[in-house]
Amino acid sequence: MPFNKLGLSKSVLDGVKAMGWTDPSPIQLRAIPLLLEGTDVIGSAQTGTGKTAAFVLPIISQLSKNSGKSRVLILEPTRELASQVETAVRDYARFTGHTVAVIYGGVGYGKQVDALKSGVDIIVATPGRLLDLMQQGNAKLGDISHVVLDEADRMLDMGFLPDVRRILDKCPKDRVTALFSATIPPAIETLIQWAMKDPETIEIGMRRSPADTIKHVIYPVAEKQKNELLFELLQRVDYDSVIIFCRTKYGADRIGAELKRQNHAVAILHSNRTQSDREKSLRGFRDGKFEVLVATDIASRGLDITNVSHVVNYDVPQHPEDYVHRIGRTGRAETTGDAFTLMVAEDVQHVDAVERFIGRPIERTKLDDFKYTYTTILDEKRFKGVSVRDRKMKTARIGKGQHFGFGGRRRR
Ligand code: AMP
After folding, report:
1. Which residue from 84, 304, 329 has its CB within 8 A of the most atoms of ligand 1, so it is best to mutate?
2. 98, 114, 321, 328: which sits with the fewest CB atoms below 10 Å from its CB?
3. Which uninterrupted H or E stretch holds 245?
4. Superfamily of structural domain 3-204
5. pLDDT in tens, 202-240
6. Atom of ligand 1 nearest to the CA of 22
7. CA 53 – ligand 1 centroid, Å
8. Which CATH number fits domain 214-406: 3.40.50.300, 1.10.3980.10, 3.30.70.600, 3.30.565.10?
9. What is the value of pTM for the model shown?
């Protein structure tokens, strides 16, 4: 079914056309009609499926403009996601004339207070700062007609649920509520019962499986050779842009510093960095200024970073669902991508958990001509003899006076 049969307003459809989208994605097909008729929605879909437009388009389609009162509240777990969703709302609402403000901590209050006082139509916020502003009397939610709780399980993990409840308590009861969450643990179930009215659940595809366009491989390696293998992989692989996930902030700093020393253009993203550093890293990575982003799991959920050709799990994720989120950074919107995971002996259990979670084994491989130090996991029976494409990196490394001009290439 094409977009124009879904009941969206003309100015929203003009926006969709300007985005160059031809057909709605499966979650959009299901969620848009429900939200248009005012039904509460619980949605789960793989990352990169068009989830944001699935809730933004129907909501702005019905929303009157510039009433001087905020009517839509979208809650996000992290500043990065809030800022990304704000940008998406601006894009999708480019012909509707709605106003939007983003509210998050780590930056000054002035601009945010002004935006709230002017009565922006749509607020995209992280819970902590919004609650602050509510307590100061600067954010009033008495006219909210639509609430979206995005990445609800992540908000739970980050300890935001009590704040979310306090915020919802101040929103009118006769609102429409949409909740998006990869998993529905008991605490979210309780929130659903408390905060939603007869919600419809939409589950798109297998919520556990990463996109089919991604090729996954595991590189077993001895602990002390992890760095060496990572650096060798980056030398050999023909990548456009790569995200390296580390378990700890310290690890991300350490790997980032070493890659910089090797003349890679590197950005680092984790929660100990200042907000302005985090924004600079993300923007630079998106724009192609940095070829490598070294990050903790703060970057694994929901961030819409396009053209990531490779994801490398320097550390195996501790929670199997984080594997799917991390890998979701590549292969987005049907481009292809490769996902490499380095595995040391003590990761075996975590890798098993990931394989059980995604419902299939992940191929083991070795790097040709790499001088491996022996470790028992190199004896595993699951090798298929695949070797990484041994192509030279294009312009990925920068030498003195050289320009790093890659990026923007979409591989089909
Ligand atoms: P999201 O899952 O909301 O983060 O969206 C992932 C990416 O898909 C974003 O870059 C969107 O701009 C893009 N997208 C969303 N809906 C569509 C669609 N119907 N057709 C093509 N691309 C889309």
Report:
1. 304
2. 114
3. strand 242-245
4. P-loop containing nucleotide triphosphate hydrolases (3.40.50.300)
5. 977 544 455 566 778 999 999 999 999 999 999 888 778
6. 20
7. 7
8. 3.40.50.300
9. 0.66
